[in-house]
Amino acid sequence: MKCHYCDDEAAFAASTEGVKVGLCEVHFRERLEELSDADELQALKEHVDVDRA
């Protein structure tokens, strides 16, 4: 599976309502940063164990 934003190989896949989207590591981290101020991040943290370096 390719990244939704670029042609790199997807390292992560997310799905919602039957739609599956792949993200490379770079774009996954960028999306997490964008969501860091959003309430949705708390829900995501409950489903995914993410350790920040």
Question: Brief description of this entry?
Answer:
With 53 residues, this protein is α+β, with helices and mostly antiparallel strands.
Account of the 3D structure:
It is built from 2 helices and 2 strands. With 53 residues, the protein is an alpha+beta fold. It has a two-stranded antiparallel ribbon. β1 (12-16) and β2 form a beta hairpin. The longest helix has 11 residues, at 25-35. It is globular and about 30 Å long.
Describe the secondary structure blueprint for this structure:
Layout: E1 12-16, E2 19-23, H1 25-35, H2 40-47
Antiparallel strand pairs: 1-2
Give keywords.
53 residues; alpha+beta; two-stranded antiparallel sheet; 2 strands; globular
Overall radius of gyration: 11 Å
Question: How many helices does DSSP assign?
Answer: 2
- Could you say which structural class the secondary elements and strand pairing correspond to? alpha+beta
| Relative strand content | 15-25%
